[in-house]
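Contributing new complexes? Match this layout with inosinic acid.
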Amino acid sequence: MTVVVGTQWGDEGKGKLTDLLASEMQVVVRYQGGHNAGHTIVVDGETFALQLVPSGVLYPHTVPVIGNGVVVDPVVLLEEVDMLSAKGIDCSRLLISGNAHLIMPYHQELDRVTERYLGKNSLGTTKRGIGPAYADKAARVGLRVQDILDAKIFREKLDIVLKEKNAVLAKVYNRLPLDADEIASKYLDEYAPRVAPMIADTVSFVHDALEVGQNVLLEGAQATFLDLDQGTYPFVTSSNPCAGGASTGTGIGPKLIDKVIGIAKAYVTRVGSGPFPTELHDELGDELVDRGHEYGVNTKRRRRTGWFDAVLLRQAARVNSLTEVALTKLDILDTFDTLKVCVAYEADGKRYDYVPYHQSVFHAVKPVYEELPGWKCDLSGITNVSELPGKARDYVQFLEAQIGVPIDLVGVGPGRNQFLRMQGGA
Ligand code: IMP
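Output block (do not edit by hand):
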């Protein structure tokens, strides 16, 4: 079983890699996050922007599964299914864990008002209700996908939780209360009939698939440094994108995982607030934004950009037990004369090879850079690794040596077939 995990702050190209690997997979499971993710996949010239449905849906031989660790907004789910169906993609194989939690209208409302309330300290969330939904899960007042199968249970749970949410919305945030009848009618009458056939015991489904020798891919959303436990807290998402989350979010023990592929951009981007040691605030940063089209798939926000940070990757290799790395968007660096790579941090006269645990140190670190020459030519047409110019190969090999994990795949363009296989590492 293989896990695909983001190693930076998201948007590394997980959708594209998952899509590539899906050709060898019979099952693809999303294990955490919700529609805060935005996976762009280009197949035969057509672009698919997926938020919730696992990218494996694009392969007829694959069963796409939404695992128990995901939070599901049924409106988005159904819109996505309709969008895919309209493009001729069959979604009838899609399975959703009955134990996944539902995103409710009050979660979105709370995400919006709390972000506003935090003002300049806001986290820059996607305002999709992700954090409030996971908070309710932990507080044990969440509604789960299975609850829509029983109107009585759904209504009981909704009435209890909505009382408290409405009090908070009205008294703390001065908002209008939400109506229980309206919510119940939407979830039970409108969404339930369409979602019910997709609901399954996904834990048993995946174990049964493994027992008959099928290949299973566990697809993460967001990334290591947005992980609630391993990321730059509080500037993180509310779930565990790290490889450990793949176990809890699907119900599969860690011993069954044999490959953990870390996906990394050849530079770094981040959306939303939080520390970013190698961030560029100059025209080179703008060049990365322009060349890399660094705008969120989901919220359309301009991404922050910076040089490749090997410290992040070393840390990601540890906390995820990475077995290999897939490097994406190498072609975006085609025009640069020189490339900087952060090989360590310095703070208070101390050198750090791994991410310092203390937030004040991390906020204060200065990157230690090494400079490499750019290759100054177009990589996007390359189809075989042997055509890679020496300086581009040197850059990849330098990163590989810094990370200490083989770089097996290098992306030179957005298409499924624009990944070069490095054969046993760079
Ligand atoms: P939330 O996940 O909407 O709560 O947002 C928390 C943080 O994670 C914010 O900084 C978001 O910009 C970031 N984030 C959430 N999902 C993604 C993603 O798919 N890519 C990149 N950043 C994300």
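Reviewers usually confirm one structural detail per submission. For this one: The pocket of inosinic acid is lined by residues 10-11, 36-38, 123-126, 128, 130-131, 221-222, 226, 235, 237-238, 271-272 (CB under 6 Å).
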